[in-house]
Structure formats: structure tokens, C-alpha cells
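Title: Prediction job returns without error message
Component: structure pipeline
Severity: low
Priority: P3
Assignee: unassigned

Description:
Job completed but the reporter wants confirmation the result is attached to the right record. Sequence as submitted:
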Amino acid sequence: MLLEAEEGIAVVGEAGAAEDAERALERLAPDLVLLDVEMPGIGGIEGATRIRRRRPEALVVILSMLDDQRTVSDAFAAGAAGYVLKRSADEELVRAIRAVLRGERYLDPALGATLAAPEAGPLEELSDREREVLRLLALGYTNSEIASKLYVSTRTVESHRRNVSTKLRVTSRSELVRLALGAGLITQRDAADPDAR
């Protein structure tokens, strides 16, 4: 009801499980898929991974009651472009959808206090450029997109990414994202203002 009342937004289908949404992709061809983290079956995060793999042009926004760092970072690592808390959905959901459709990443502002507390530790070993690469990875940018934003080659970005993984002793994207969120490299301003990125 909330979305159908919005100008320029049309609800083209609904599904009770992420698998059902995945199966409906070709028939409905949505621009954006809204998923709950806690859905029957594979759940929203694995659903986001499958939907992005099957239809890369379909953007994903996650809606959840969960506000912990690991869930948020896992959602972005799975390919979500936005994360909105259910408790603020009335105010934030439409804003998030419009931002994501404009090509922005969106993080519910209410998560700022939860995710902005810096974690001391290995991030101090990173150079300024490595921290910037990590921040952009956490925002969901690909190596080539990061290269374009930083005016360097993709190979240079790949080298920085390897250095980050080595220094932080992690290899998975979700762990890199979690560390970036925990260190406060993503802020409320980053989520709301694409020029801040």
C-alpha cells in the first residue's frame, strides 16, 4: 500500500519466499526487488545473491528488523544496494528505493549509531588509499568502478584489495564489509549523499 501510493513506483509482483521471487524474475522483469532478511526458505540474503546472479540489472533493497553489523555487511556483500530497518520503513523505504534507482547505495540512517562505533585494530595498518578502497568495497562498488572513481587502473585497485585482505587477514567480501562498517568507514552521510563517496 505504501509503495502503490507513490508516484513513479509500481508494484509488479509479490512473493512469499526468495525462491519464488527468483523464479518470477524473467516474467516480471522488475527494476528493483525488495527482500526481507528473514523469509521462508533460503532467506533474503541468499535470495539477493541469486537474484543478482540471475538478473544483474535488478537492484535489491533489504528490509529487516536486524540491525547488527554482520547482517548488514552480509546484505551488501550479497549485492544489495540498500538496507532499511522495518521500524523506520514508513519514513525510509520510499527514500531508499528512489536513491537506489538513481544509482546510489542506501543505508538506513538509524543504523548510523549502531555501525559507526570504530573498532580499533588492524585497520590502523592500512594506508589512506587502502582505506579508501576498503570503504568503496563496503559500499558495493566493483574493482572497475573503484578504479574509475579513484582515477587509477583496475590492476592498481586489485593490488590495493590484496594488500587490504592480507593486512586484515580476511579474504571474504562479507568480512571486508563488516570491518569497514565496524570501523566507521561508512557513515550516514555516505548513505545519503553520493557525492560524499
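Comment from assignee: result matches the submitted record. Strands lie at 32-36, 59-64, 82-85, 106-107.
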